[in-house]
Specification:
Blueprint (H helix, E strand, L loop, with lengths): L2 H47 L1 H5 L1 H25 L1
Helix pairs in contact: 1-3
């Protein structure tokens, strides 16, 4: 195996690693979008089915869950890009 073959293998490995890291980022993004969509659906259903509960304590709980999900999302994205 000469130097050119080693260089070619190094570049191929680097490209595969970059592609793999990109897949990980998009999988995490997709998972968090799904969770956020589910939370939004729950909030909408709560407003439709239980309007009195949704305005009171339900609003605080759903807002807290939404904030927690967004906070986790932010931390995961920051970690993946650094």
């Amino acid at each position: 195996m000469d130097t050119n073959d080693k260089i070619r293998i190094g570049y191929q490995t680097s490209i595969q690693l970059i592609a793999y890291q990109g897949q990980i980022i998009w999988r995490a993004f997709g998972a968090l979008v799904s969770v956020n969509t589910g939370l939004t659906a729950i909030a909408g259903a709560a407003l439709a089915w239980f309007p009195n509960l949704a305005i009171g304590i339900g609003t605080i709980i759903l807002a807290g869950l939404g904030f927690g999900i967004c906070n986790a999302w932010f931390r995961i994205i920051i970690r993946e890009f650094h």
